[in-house]
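Take just one protein record:
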Amino acid sequence: MDKDQLRALFDMQKALNQRIGVETESMDEAQKTQWVLNYARAMGQELAELTDSVPWKWWAKYQTFDEQNARVEVVDLFHFLISLAQVLGMSADDVYAAYVKKNEVNFQRQESGYTEKDHGDSRHI
């Protein structure tokens, strides 16, 4: 995915949110708090649905891996994750830049052995 594709996803999500009456750009702090919780809860539910797409019940022999549904759940997660980023005032470019910086931190952690949490190594993101 290039930056233009990510921007397109953010534009599509903004239009969908507006269509259902959620204006992320004009929220006050109380509304932001509520919508962060709403989207975090929604993502938790989507993660549960993703989990249910794989045979995780070791005692149940009837389960199968539903890869098609797993893919749908991943896309659902993107919908809520993008909405959450928008509530927090992040654009596609902001997310891209933060991802690049965090990815560098993660590689540095792997190089250093990452044996102890450093709360300061992500402050620049």
In short: Helices lie at 3-19, 29-51, 67-87, 92-112. The mean pLDDT is 94. The domain at 3-20+28-56+63-112 is CATH 1.10.287.1080 (Helix Hairpins).
